[in-house]
Amino acid sequence: MSPADEIEYTKVRGLRGPLAIVEGVSGIGWDEYVRITLASGERRHGVVLDADRDLAVVQVLEGTAGMDPEGIRAAFSGSPLRVPVGTDWLGRVCNGRGEPLDGGPPVLGSHTAEVGGAPINPVRREPPSEPVLTGVGAVDVLTTLVRGQKLPVFSVAGLPHLELAAQIAAQATAAGEAFSVVFAGMGLTHADASFVRDALEERSAAGELVLLLNTADDPVIERILTPRIALTVAENLAFNEGRHVLVVMTDMTTYAEALREVSAARGEIPARRAYPGYLYSDLASLYERCGRIKGRPGSVTVLPVLTMPAGDITHPVPDLTGYITEGQIVLSPETHARGAYPPLDALSSLSRLMRKGAGPGRTRDDHLHVAAQLLAALAHARQVRDLADLVGQAALSPTDRRYLDFEEAFLRDFADQRSDEPRELDTSLERGWQALLTLPRSQLSMLPAQLLDAHGAKEFDAPDVREAP
Amino acid sequence: MTIPAPDQTADTLAPVRAGLLREAHADAEALLTRTEREAATLLDQARAEAQAILVRARRQGEADGANAARDLLVRARREARSRTLAARREAYEELRREAAQRVRGLRGTDGYASLRERLEHRARILLGPDAEVSEHADGGVVARTPGKRADLSLTALADHALDRTGAEVRSLWEP
């Protein structure tokens, strides 16, 4: 207990909404964590939003309902929030500030760490390598997630991004090495929170999951703490306990909105769309906490999920996220409307580090070839579809019609998957091959001849050959 | 012009009648064969469809059954886990109650006077020499100055000490 922590301030000038203004304080800093005791003995917690001379504005995490300014005692901890770290977190379900929701004792740890953390020193970073297999075929084959990578999911309201996030969190593995998932849900509705709990129950019971749930009606300042607590716990599990950790954070747009609300309460000058000017650096301070460290086991991989308001990819949150992260998985309403899950827009999705995690010695020798050929064929199929809209399918060449068949097979047989079905990479690649084999061999120019022979690729009827470009 | 006798007319038309009858028979035969073939095809189709429906229904039933079984398993696991956690919480709270009770017991001991003196000294360091120091009902002291308070009661000190024990508490439920 620090001396600062032992002194309780009892003069509260007023309560406004979730804010308490404490008077007569000294030596108080921004973001300091506050323990508030009510006259009844009830404990609440807060964070210093603003400190000026002898005044401190404290946002009370549990809200100020039922608080009498007369009986309040506020003890300032002298530092931003610290959380205990260690393997005790595994299998626990907590709220957005790390307090148990599962009826268990508080999460205990042999030491604590500041949730603000610090990004990894660039010279001590080990480049990401080796894959994290998500068990979602389209993601594993086309946008392979690499250990230590940050790969966001860009979605639109109404699409099943939460299902996808939960599915990845439930199924992801690291080739038999110790693996854990930290799932940070921010601004979730109660129905969504309950869905996530159900979907991740098995992994939680297996002691491989830390679940932090900040619901939509929880205080906004807690939403700002949630991803930080998740990353702090993950860093310890990775770099001290030697595990590969996947941190799923959803929904980052809700997080950014919370940041905007707090920034407005602090009276800061708003920037683009009223988000604070430091939105970029704030997002970077979260995303850059992933990676691998030289000489240490384990890795932290980050999968943030964000919704683009009105599908606008130039909105500040996806825009700035795109600057920091290493690729993106884009979900599309068109694919969703065609009944495929996950509704991945394969041509807009990209994992920039895929080559470091896929291919010979990492996944399968033909992985990169198949992925490249699938995307190339899909791009051509899209052109053919546009052409067919103009001239009608009957006017297409037989080869082009086969591209339409390929697109159908790609969606139906390769991309489409049940949300509770873990799919092995081998199965996914074979399904990719099956879709590709709807095309004549002459069209599969990105695949080596011996692979084509092995999979029995053939030309179809003679007119196809003649008309093939 | 002579009118042929009726029996002569019948004789003349006989081949026509026979031809018509033959054709009608052949048509009827063909129709029958076609109908039989169609009926057989329809029957085959119906059988195949019924088989497909049966397979689909079986698959659906299996999927539903698997879902129901998984739901049951999830619920059972959650129940077991929440009971374990509730038991751990109970043990943890019992530890806190016990610690608070033991520490309150210090009041009756010989060393209490010197302990209280040290706590009073600590309170004056924290809040200054003008702080008003009073005895707490649970033992220990509480110091006050306008706008500030320092709780050095024995129960508060025990609480803080337990907060610092961290992972050691795990020994309550782990061997």
TrEMBL record, chain A:
One of its GO terms (biological process) is proton motive force-driven plasma membrane ATP synthesis. One of its GO terms (molecular function) is proton-transporting ATP synthase activity, rotational mechanism. Keywords: ATP synthesis, Hydrogen ion transport, Ion transport, Transport. The keyword Transport applies. Signal peptide: none annotated. Residues 17-69 form the ATPase F1/V1/A1 complex alpha/beta subunit N-terminal domain. Belongs to the ATPase alpha/beta chains family. Produces ATP from ADP in the presence of a proton gradient across the membrane. The V-type beta chain is a regulatory subunit. This is V-type ATP synthase beta chain. It comes from Streptomyces griseicoloratus. The gene is atpB.
From TrEMBL, chain B:
This is V-type ATP synthase subunit E. It comes from Streptomyces griseicoloratus.
